[in-house]
Design brief:
The chain is mainly β and 606 residues long. 2% of the residues lie in helices and 41% in strands. A hairpin with a 2-residue loop joins strand 58 and strand 59.
């Protein structure tokens, strides 16, 4: 048995290449080949071609062909010591039909490659791994400024792509382009890449993409006719993206940092964008991220200082459309610049159901902070346990989009010059459940066309307000701008009063300046309606039950908690729910969530 095992071993060879060798060479340690192609020709699947330090140019070291060989091409040390320079004459690697294993390229710099597709590397029908590789200053006439992959299984690890580009109109993937492939990107850096089509750094079409711990900086597709993804475009495809940074990206049309269109079948899990950062990106629509998906999750992401710049450009931080869950995200200092632009923090364009929970939007600038638009009768938006504070514009709900705001704090400074309100139900039904709406107008002159206040309805809009507090220091708390508008307000605390069952007008007695929890003897304690507490549509406790009543308040305390210092004036079996986004709780630490100035939440300061 031992003899059989030894005889069955297949020994791999190492073939040596040295640009200083005089040749012809035999590929041994002491007699290396002078060109890389000689090493490739000698190698069989499983072998290694070891390329010694140096700069490799001229014939035999560019336009290299690897057909069907699962070999390893690696440098002696690292990519800073081993450079293949095509000098603008051709691509560097042509790879086909590597299916019986994986072709590995490791620790090599590829530069000045030029080709119709794949400036430095062109691959078809192959398994390929690039590790510790640098692709610098390569160009393609069409797709893939540095690398082009078709029908491939690709892994990019610890790889840098810098200053690559595509040249022709609509040519995609300034650094990398993949079609009908599986693409894994980990710990990579893409900088200063340009495409005239989709994906300034990376364009993936009909691909399954996994990316993690990578950085995309100063990439762009800013040319007229270049539509999607200043840094990355995945269109169409499926993606799982974690802990990546997208910064200073620029798209002419949509998705300044990332554009993702997921059309994958129901058998696939939802696309995910998890714990990513989008900063200082720009596009007409979706300054940071544009996401169109049948099923997708955006979780734990930060969107800061992104811009939607077109006249009607929308979604300074995020533009989302489809059946999408957005959880635990921060939207800060994003801008919707255009006169008709909407959603400085985000636009929810409904082709299904969008659920937003546990998010913070602060210091955003534009005509509205969140714009909700609907395109179908069954569409709906749920916004739960979110904070909107110090934004220059209202939370605007428009376009026939039924929307529920649950356990939300809306602390806004609304521009007096243009008028408006914190919440605007325009041609839509907007329901506020256990929300607190407060703030004051800015110091601009005049009240605008409709005045400045807490909530308004227009163009046949409807406001349903339950267990909420409206304590805005403006012209009104609730305004109906036409005869077709409607408001139904119950068990709520309304500054100045409002007709409806269980409503009160007494001072809510907040805990402190900028702290909108209830003080111990607040008249809003135990004064709500238990039957009006909505279902847990965003599954705040993550137990898979979307039908139970909302279990938590904004602070994460139990939604039903008895205050023994006040009488129950609300409706239902005790404990009776409080009004507003916070349930009084004797265990709450004073001033834990809020202070004057920037919001502090989970350690985030903006």
């Amino acid at each position: 048995m031992i003899a059989i095992a030894i005889c069955s071993l297949t020994l791999s060879n190492i073939w040596y290449v040295d640009d200083d060798a005089t040749g012809p060479g035999s590929g041994t340690f002491d007699d290396p080949f002078p060109t890389i192609q000689q090493g490739i020709n000698a190698a069989e699947s499983g072998d290694t071609v070891l390329i010694r330090d140096g700069t490799y140019k001229s014939n035999g070291n560019r336009n290299l062909f690897v057909d069907g060989k699962a070999i390893t091409l690696r440098s002696e040390h690292d990519s800073t010591q081993c450079v293949i320079d095509a000098e603008g004459f051709s691509t560097i690697f042509n790879i086909k039909d590597v299916t019986g294993g994986t072709l590995t390229i490791q620790g090599i710099t590829m530069t000045h490659g030029v080709s119709i597709r794949g400036g430095a590397l062109y691959a078809e029908d192959s398994n390929i791994s690039l590790a510790g590789v640098r692709c610098i200053s390569n160009a393609a006439g069409y797709d893939g400024g540095a690398a082009y992959f078709e029908n491939c299984n690709v892994s990019l690890t610890d790889t840098t792509c810098d200053s690559n580009r595509t040249i022709s109109q609509s040519a995609s993937g300034g650094a990398v382009y993949a079609w009908n492939s599986k693409l894994h990107v980990e710990q990579c850096a893409f900088t200063n890449n340009l495409a005239r089509g989709y994906g300034g750094a990376l364009g993936a079409e009909s691909c399954d993409v996994a990316m993690s711990d990578s950085t995309f900086s100063s990439n762009g597709s800013p040319f007229k006719g270049a539509y999607y993804g200043g840094a990355v475009s995945i269109y169409p495809g499926h993606a799982d993206i974690k802990r990546c940074t997208f910064e200073n990206g620029w798209a002419y049309e949509v998705g300044g940092g990332l554009f993702l269109y997921d059309d994958s079948p129901a058998s696939f899990p939802p696309s995910r964008v998890i714990d990513c950062k989008f900063s200082h990106n720009q596009a007409d629509t979706g300054g940071g991220l544009q996401l169109l998906s049948l099923r997708a999750i955006v979780k734990g992401c930060e969107f800061t200082d992104n811009v939607s710049a077109g006249y009607s450009g929308s979604g300074g931080g995020l533009y989302a459309s489809g059946n999408i869950t957005i959880n635990g995200c921060v939207m800060a200092r994003n801008t919707a610049q255009g006169e008709e632009g909407l959603g400085s923090a985000m636009v929810l364009a409904l082709y299904g159901t969008i659920r937003v929970s546990d998010c913070v939007a602060t210091n955003n600038r534009g005509n509205s902070t969140i714009a909700v638009q609907s395109f179908g009768a069954a569409d709906k938006a749920y916004i739960s346990n979110c904070i909107f504070s110090a934004n220059s514009s209202p939370v605007c709900v428009a376009g026939y989009a039924p929307t529920l705001l649950i356990n939300c704090l809306l602390d806004h400074t609304v521009p007096r010059r243009n008028g408006g309100s914190v919440v605007n139900a325009s041609s839509a039904q907007v329901e506020l459940d256990n929300c607190t709406v407060t703030g004051r107008p800015d110091s601009g002159i005049g009240s605008g066309r409709y005045g400045v206040g807490a909530c308004s309805a227009s163009q046949g809009g409807t406001l349903l307000i339950r267990n909420s507090i409206l304590w805005f220091f403006g012209d009104y708390q609730i305004r109906l701008n036409s005869g077709s508008d409607h408001a139904d307000v119950r068990y709520s605390c309304i500054k100045g009063g409002y007709a409806g069952t269980g409503n009160i007008s007494a001072d809510p007695q907040f805990a402190g300046v900028g702290d909108y929890r209830l003080s111990q003897f607040s008249p809003c304690c135990d004064a709500g309606d238990n039957t009006s507490v909505p279902s847990d549509s965003c599954d705040l406790d993550n137990d898979g039950d979307f039908q139970e009543q909302v279990p938590f308040d904004l602070e994460g305390n139990a939604r039903f908690f008895d205050n023994p210092f006040v009488s129950d004036t609300g409706f239902g079996t005790p404990p009776v729910v409080d009004m507003g986004c916070f349930e009084w709780n004797s265990q709450s630490a004073p001033n834990f969530w809020f202070q004057e100035g920037p919001i502090l939440r989970r350690g985030w300061g903006y």
